[in-house]
Design brief:
Distance between the termini: 47 Å
Helix content: under 10%
Oligomer: single chain
Order of helices and strands: EEEEEEEEEEEEEEEEE
Number of helices: 0
Strand content: 35-45%
Length: about 200
C-alpha cells in the first residue's frame, strides 16, 4: 500500500512499512537426470557398474548404502559406493558379478540431499534385466498386464514377463514379498478392487 501527502507545495510519497516482502524464489527440487543402466534396459552385462547422476551437488554424508543401493528379488545387493563430486554421480560396483537373466532395481531414496536443492521428494527406482547366459536373445515376452504372461510369471514394470519381483512397482495390485507378488486385501474387507498398483506397469521412475 502506498500513501501520499502534501507538504507545502510538494507531494511526498511514502511506501507503507507494512507492505509484504516479495515472494521467495522457488528452487527446483533434487532429481535424477540420468540412470546407468537406463531404466528398462535389457541384456545388461553381469559386470555392470550402476550409477545415477543428480541435478545438484550432493551432501556426501547422505550417500550411504541405505540411501542408494542395488536390489534384486532377494533384497539389497552388496556393492561398493563411490561419489563423483565433479559429475554429481553416485556409482555402485557390485561385490560379485550379477546373476544372468535377472531383474534388478537401482534405488535412490529421500535420504539423499543436494547442497542447494534439498532432499529427493520421493524414492526413485530404475529397473533393468541382465543378459541371459546364452547371450542377448531378442524376443523376451512383452506385457502390459499380468494376463499377458504365461504360467506364474509376472509383468514387471519394464514391460516384460519375469519370474520374480524386486519391488512393489513390479506387482499389479499387490506387494512384493521375497520375490513374490502378494495381492493386497481390500481396505473395507469387501470384494471390491483391491488397489495398490498402477493398471499398467510404470517405467520405475
Amino acid at each position: 500500500m502506498i500513501k501520499s501527502r502534501w507538504i507545502g507545495m510538494g507531494l511526498v510519497i511514502a511506501v507503507c512499512a507494512a507492505c509484504s516482502e516479495p515472494a521467495g524464489i522457488v528452487i527446483e527440487p533434487l532429481r535424477v537426470i540420468n540412470w546407468s543402466p537406463a531404466s528398462g534396459a535389457f541384456c545388461v552385462g553381469v559386470d555392470a557398474v550402476v550409477s545415477a547422476t543428480f541435478s545438484d551437488q550432493l551432501v556426501e554424508s547422505s550417500v550411504t548404502a541405505d540411501s542408494f543401493y542395488l536390489a534384486d528379488a532377494d533384497g539389497p545387493v552388496e556393492t561398493a559406493l563411490a561419489y563423483d563430486a565433479a559429475n554429481y554421480t553416485i556409482r555402485a560396483t557390485p561385490a560379485a558379478p550379477l546373476a544372468f537373466d535377472r531383474l534388478y532395481a537401482v534405488v535412490a531414496t529421500t535420504a539423499l540431499r543436494g547442497q542447494a536443492h534439498g532432499r529427493l521428494a520421493v524414492n526413485l527406482e530404475a529397473a533393468f534385466i541382465t543378459v541371459a547366459r546364452a547371450g542377448c536373445v531378442p524376443g523376451e515376452p512383452e506385457c502390459q498386464l499380468p494376463s499377458d504372461c504365461p504360467g506364474t510369471q509376472i509383468c514387471a514394470r519394464i514391460g516384460v514377463c519375469v519370474d520374480e519381483c524386486v519391488s512393489d512397482k513390479d506387482c499389479y495390485h499387490a506387494t512384493c514379498e521375497l520375490g513374490t507378488c502378494v495381492p493386497v486385501a481390500p481396505a473395507d474387507g469387501g470384494g471390491g478392487d483391491p488397489g495398490g498398483g498402477d493398471p499398467v506397469p510404470g517405467d520405475g521412475d
